[in-house]
Structure prediction request, 485 residues.
Amino acid sequence: MDSSDDTSGWQRLDRRMLLVHPVRDFIRFLPVLIGILVFGQSSDGEWWGLIGVGVPIALGIARYLTTSYRITTGRIEVRHGFVNRRVLSAPLDRVRTVDLTASLIHRVLGLVTLRVGTGQSDAKGEERLALDGLAVPAAAALRERLLHLTPAAEPRAADAPRPTREVLTLDLAWVRFAPFTSTGIAIAGAALGVLAQSLHTFDIAPSVDLDRIARLGFALLAIVGILGVLVTICVLAVVGYLLTNFGFRLTHTGAEGSWHLQRGLFTTRETTLDDARVSGVSIGEPVGLRLAGGARLSAIVTGLDKKQQGSSVLVPPAPRAEVDRVAAEVLGVPGPITTPLITHGTRAQRRRWTRAMVPGGLVAVAALVVAYVVSWWFLALAVAALVVCAGLAHDRWLGLGHAFADGHLVARSGSLDRRREVLHTPSVIGWNLRATWFQRRGGLTDLVATTAGGRQYVEVIDLDESRATELALAATPGLLDPFLA
Prediction:
């Protein structure tokens, strides 16, 4: 790194970024460049090509020359821009996470992009300070300073290394969970869509023998087609899983240090979470993963907003036993993970069934009308609607529960996207009791623990009103006393 202003401590990015920015801008402007070249040929212009190539290079050089950063007493500052000069600043004690991301070209040149998550958000989404183009050693040293240097503390001595413990590494056998995740299905669907659009655009179609199709039968071809699509989706989901999570490694440094994870095949990503900022965990159990015996784990990090939740992933889709083990290590106690949850009573059960069966009943009635007018085959739709909604109601009831164990509030709910959230009660900054008109009629309420981490709240839904108050008092003694007249 080169110091641009020695007197004020401003530093520039690594010089090797002069090779990255022009390439990136050239790719971004590629459609415009093609248009310029076509226009230049039609108008017999000789300089259009040079201008089209020179603009991205000039923009890349300007971005490098106008970007610098520094760490002052208790603050990190980043400035960029030439016409519109901009300085982003954040206190060091507001740093929540530090991400190191390296694309393929960054890795070839030995560079990374460092992003600082501070939990401060604005309408333009520029709350994260980013330094695109630091040498790997310099980025590692800067990450160490940002996470362990505060205004009241001095940097840790270089001769006092902290022990690093490996908590989890990726097992390639876990790719079997990829087809059961919504991300895998989305990646596969997008790839199939691009393929179909390409075939349509270039008018590529296989030759079709109609007589042979008639002989084989439409039903057999439909089955083969469906199986082919499913196999393709599974393969693409596995590829997406490996691209994202290849080399996944979770480690913990020091007795009260930080969690560090790295992953990625072509684009690598390293994230560090300070122990003091981790206030709980969230175990995601989508229906597909749950049926396959898997789950995923994220940390509830104080100060992160929804845009930064990708930084809090601790375990990718993996066996449930591994997720529970890592969750217990993050919390420091196994109780919140292993404690049986308390059910919410018959009134909550009745509400689960009512909310599922009323829409199902409306669909069934509509299907019966269509069956009477069009075809009795629509009776199958009516039966399927009732069966599916009944299964959904039962599963939502089984997934509903809460507990208070070892100083942690535990809340679980959902069916298609079931989630078990565990929050350390010292992180609770307030309670909300919310009830709709239907809940009030049934004597139920939602207990919401507000916090500065994750989704900003952990919700225990459809509790008896008396039990909700008791749970809040047990979790945070004295916090509700001024409101209990």
